[in-house]
Structures are given as C-alpha cells and as structure tokens.
Amino acid sequence: MERSQHQALVIIDVQNDFCPGGALAVPGGDEIISKINLMQQNYAQIVLTQDWHPASHSSFASAHDGKSPYDMVQMPYGDQVLWPDHCIQGTSGAAFHADLVTDRADLILRKGSNPLIDSYSAFFENDHQTTTGLEGYLRDKGVVSLLFVGLATDFCVRYSAVDAAKLGFDVSVDLSACNAIDLNGSLKNALDDMRAHNIHIIGQ
Fold it and tell me: Domain ranges in the chain?
C-alpha cells in the first residue's frame, strides 16, 4: 500500500561515478540500490537527483593549477572541496547505476550544471541562494514529509536534508540506504549537523 501523497522519497545521486569503479566512488555505493528499489514501492512521490557537471567545472581539482583532489580552496561562496572530475554531462559516469529503478520517479532533478558553483543540495547551489526549483515542485504536490536516501551521506544527502529541514519540511534520513565518503571526519560532522536540525536519523 502506497504512503500518503504528502510524503516523498528523495533518492540522491545513485550514479556510476559514485559507485565502485567510478571516478569518485563511495565505498559500498552500489550495495544500497536493492533496498532503495524496494523502498520506492511504498511512495507515491519519488524524486531522483543527478549530479550533472560540465567539463572543467570549478569544483574539479583539474580546473586549478597545482591543486589535487580533496584539497580545499576558497570560492566566492565559501570553502570548496576540490573533487576528481566526475559526473560529467552525457558520460557513462553521470548515468544512473543500471540496477537502480528509475521509471517510478516523478521528477529527475539535475544539479551542479553551473560551471562556477558546485551544488551538493537538491534545493540550493553552494552559494545557498540559487534555488534548483525543487521546493516549489514539492509544495505544488502538497508534499510535507521527505525521506532521503542515496549518495553520499556526508555531502549531497546531508546538505539536501538540512536545507529541506530549514525550509520547513519534516525530514528523515535512512542510513541503511545511504553510504558515505567520510573525508576527514565528514560523516560524524554530517550526522551531528542533521541531528542539530531535528532530522530523524533512521537505520543507525
């Protein structure tokens, strides 16, 4: 039996580049897919997000002379981790993992396409001002409650969930259907941040 139309499942960035063998692989990134597919059967509203970067995106280490992946730099909008080139528009790395069920999704939201600003969150780019349009879409659908799953717990899941909570949605994150990069303690920081925003943490 499907859940209320007022609830939505938001599946974050289950793409080849974030799975084993990908350019920015999350450990065990593919191991959550079967659970996510089962969860989709219980939701009337499903949103998929997809990292969708142009080549030479400013968040790529390759776009900065003398910098390496995972270095930190200052951007006009604040601190930015520099990443390996990943999820480049139209490449196999940017495609959803073949095992992920995608045909139940009501919306596929592509983010990170502005070459000057990274976009972890499904709601805002990293300047925390430029919106993706997702809030308006969900409000129009009457959605008030969101469950987040996907990749990676400590970056795109975290920022999406925290922004959703700030916007007034009732937010949950199911850790059994997420996996983390855990870069220099980023997973603990993410969990602390989500709890501080009254996000329900499930599956821990």
Answer: 7-54+85-202
Chunked into runs of 10 residues, the chain (204 residues) has average pLDDT values of 79 98 96 97 96 96 96 94 96 98 97 95 95 97 97 97 98 98 93 98 88
> Helices (H) and strands (E) in the chain — how many of each?
4, 8
Q: Looking at 19, 51, 87, 111, which residue is catalytic?
A: 111
Indicate which residue of 13, 17, 30, 174 is catalytic: 13
Catalytic residue among 118, 156, 163, 174: 156
Judge whether 178 counts as a catalytic residue.
Answer: no
- Could you tell me where the beta strands, DSSP code E, fall in 22-144? 45-51, 72-75, 78-81, 107-111
In the residue annotation, 193 being an active-site residue is answered as no
Cα(174)–Cα(182) distance, integer angstroms:
17
Topology (CATH) of 7-54+85-202: Rossmann fold (3.40.50)
Provide the whole-model pTM. Answer: 0.96
Q: How many residues does the chain have?
A: 204
Fill in the amino acid letter for 182: D
Q: Note the Cα 145 to chain centre separation in Å.
A: 17
